[in-house]
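Notes from the pairing session

We agreed to fold both candidates in a single pass and log them together. This is the raw record for the first candidate, unedited. Please don't reformat it; downstream parsing expects exactly this layout.

Candidate A
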Amino acid sequence: MKYWHSLRVGIFLAYRGILRSNRYVAVLIVTILTLIFLNLVAVGGLLLGLIKGSETGYIKTYSGTLLAQPLRTEKFLQDADKLIDFAKTLPGFLSYAPRLQTGGKLEKDFRSRQKGSEGNSISATILGIDPVLEGQTTNMANKVLEGRFLYPGERDAIVLGSILAGRGATIAIGESLQEVYVGDKLLLTLGSGARKEYTLVGIVKSKNNLRNLQAIISLDEMRDIMNIRDYRLSEIAFKTDDPLNPMKFKDYFVNAGYDRINLLKTWDEGIGTAVKDINDSFGLIGNIVGGIGLMVGGITIFILIFVNAVSKRRFIGVLKASGISGGSVIVSYMIQGVFYTAVAVVIGMTTLYGFLVPFVDQNPIDFPFADGILYVSAEYAIVRIVILFAVSIVSGFVPAYLIVKENTLNAILGR
């Protein structure tokens, strides 16, 4: 009963304190708490957005939801045509991108080089694609830096990734072709000895460097130069309507037994340990930055409430002298801290989801390896909101407790 009475009186004191507080001070407190909340959530969300941006880029430019590749003991996919036919019957399936891949050498100025010299050449991964199906599955056709992408059914044309074409300040001599431009003639030589001349029609640049290291020709052209007459493929990327739930789609193939004759990788399995390590590092940095922001926020809330309580030290002494318990006074300051924090959280959430997240989604931050977005999941925000409220309660309790424990007469006289 005693505690219930203290709570009721504390709520009344908090209500009166908020109503009678200086409006400019209240606005300042809420503004500071809002900025603390945004710093706590948005900075970590930006780092998480880098992770999501790199994952989204990998899905959209290369892997799709699921990537089918040959077993390590095989050079080509087994039953590739049956794999595609089966995928078309599955719920959620949208499109597929068949690819044929091999190694080769690209050479520029091959007509003028001296016999026996290497000239302007580079070893590269040569990828044969169907431009229409690739465009339906990935967005590589939209990543053109110079020139254009392949036309459907186009022959004698080649597209280079930006690293192969030497576009970028970090590209060293010997890692790319030098002085190569759209319209140049390039000689492609495969390991089998097959050779053919191509016209460079475009240069593509993706945040996924795997794509920037490839030379792309049409799938029919690749079959001809490799002298392949059946439906052999090196990999197939499958796109679904729910790429963030890849295991559900993969399970269909596993249950049908296709995992025994081919290697099936969801995008998160195929993204590579290096990228995962980078993502984990960014997640750790986000937690560190968030932890520092939380400490700064807690100290700031403590100072704000402490200054507010000290300025009303005599008033608190009068309350105690009139018979109001110290517990009620402490509860009132804790409630005030919670109130100001709640207002700040509402304003911060409105700003975050109403403006910041949509704005950054429409205008992603251009990082070398990903398009940075602001990714703040509901779970991520809720955890930090709960922590912020806990900090505000503690920060409201401590200064009020310290002042309440003072001698009542000293508090009234300001000694």
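Candidate B (folded immediately after A)
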Amino acid sequence: MKDLGSLMKQAQEMQEKLQAAQAKLAAAEIEGVSGGDMVRVTLTGAGALTRLHIDESLLAPGESEILADLIIAAHADARRKLEAAQAETMRDIAGPLADLPGMPKF
């Protein structure tokens, strides 16, 4: 029974680490850029878009298609960075368990 108690304690500690990591990720802000920094978007850890910066030169008539493409690219850049940060956090929490067969790969 001693092993079961130890296992339960480890599970509780892992649960606490997971909750702390989720809170940290939720509070994070990730920035994505495109067009040589002409468009910048900021996402929260939950993926919500909170800020958008557009260089004024892109607001000229006839630039709407380029602007739309740059916004989409900046958002995609931010999403990739956010997903990488989430995966790294989960790998850190899983520790040596991340290498066990059958465990999800982050």
